[in-house]
Amino acid sequence: MRKAYIAGNWKMNMTPSAGAAYAAELAKAAAEAGADVKIMVAPPFVTIPAVVEALRGSSIIVAAQNMNDHKSGAYTGEVAPEMLKDLGVTTVILGHSERRSYYKEDDAFINRKLLLALEEGMDVVLCVGETLEERESGKLEEVLSTQLVGGLKDVKAEDMEHITIAYEPVWAIGTGRTATPEDADSAHAFIRGQIAKMYSDDIAQKLIIQYGGSVNASNVKALMAKENIDGALVGGASLSVEKFLPIITYDK
Ligand code: PGA
């Protein structure tokens, strides 16, 4: 049985003071509502300490949205995994489509970060997904399998328990256009099948696959009802407790 895993990716939103107020409100509301899903929030780097502090004593996970592929050194403007761990960050999102497209991150670069995160004992949410053009030209499966093989290169079977995959069709992110639950489920089934080929059926069955792309309170239930959809990576609708609470309590 896979435990539902719902994550809020704040992207470049929320100052430290706004993040702390939000986190305290979320922890209280989630506890009162009896939310029993695994919950994660990913604030911008500078907002992380205030959020970790506000979430002390709560089981809500604090993740980073990115990290560097080196342990330390002369990389101006970058953040190392050890710095994140020192703050209490256990998890990092890697390969988000905004990083792939705006900052030209490719699979090899994402893979170097992912291997370093595992070496540092962190959990990873690896994002994969196709553009509209790729989907319309019949390349969905090719794109997903290239991103999975490239992103997970040299990841050992025993480390797969630290990996979550987020399927985020690029055309559905921030556009209000969601994949239908059926389309999303079939992409998730394909991803699970690839993982079974790369590793084993057992690892594929245990793998948590989140869907991301315009998830909100009104579509989350239908998405989560699908066999292969185990969670959500939520952007816009994670930015207020009012919108995020009904998502993390979709089963209530
Ligand atoms: P969205 O973003 O929910 O605003 O579409 C999702 C994401 O990019 O993780």
UniProtKB/TrEMBL annotation:
Metabolic or biological pathway: Carbohydrate degradation; glycolysis; D-glyceraldehyde 3-phosphate from glycerone phosphate: step 1/1; Carbohydrate biosynthesis; gluconeogenesis
Any Pfam family matching the protein: TIM
CDD domains in alphabetical order: TIM
Localisation per UniProt entry: Cytoplasm
EC category: isomerase
UniProt key word Ribonucleoprotein: no
UniProt keywords, alphabetically: Cytoplasm, Gluconeogenesis, Glycolysis, Isomerase
Binding sites annotated in the UniProt record for substrate: 9-11, 174, 214, 235-236
Domain of life: Bacteria
Isomerase found in the keyword field: yes
Gene3D superfamilies: Aldolase class I (3.20.20.70)
One GO molecular-function entry: triose-phosphate isomerase activity
InterPro entries (UniProt xref): Aldolase_TIM, TIM_sf, TrioseP_Isoase_bac/euk, Triosephosphate_isomerase, Triosephosphate_isomerase_AS
Residue ranges that the Swiss-Prot or TrEMBL entry lists as coiled coil: none
GO-annotated biological processes: gluconeogenesis; glyceraldehyde-3-phosphate biosynthetic process; glycerol catabolic process; glycolytic process
EC number per UniProt: 5.3.1.1
Reactions performed catalytically: D-glyceraldehyde 3-phosphate = dihydroxyacetone phosphate
Catalytic residue positions: 96 (electrophile), 168 (proton acceptor)
TM spans (from-to): none
Gene Ontology CC annotation, any one: cytosol
Described purpose of this protein according to its UniProt entry: Involved in the gluconeogenesis. Catalyzes stereospecifically the conversion of dihydroxyacetone phosphate (DHAP) to D-glyceraldehyde-3-phosphate (G3P).
UniProt family annotation: Belongs to the triosephosphate isomerase family.
Subunit structure: Homodimer.
Name of the molecule in the record: Triosephosphate isomerase
Species, as recorded: Candidatus Aphodenecus pullistercoris
Gene, per the UniProt record: tpiA
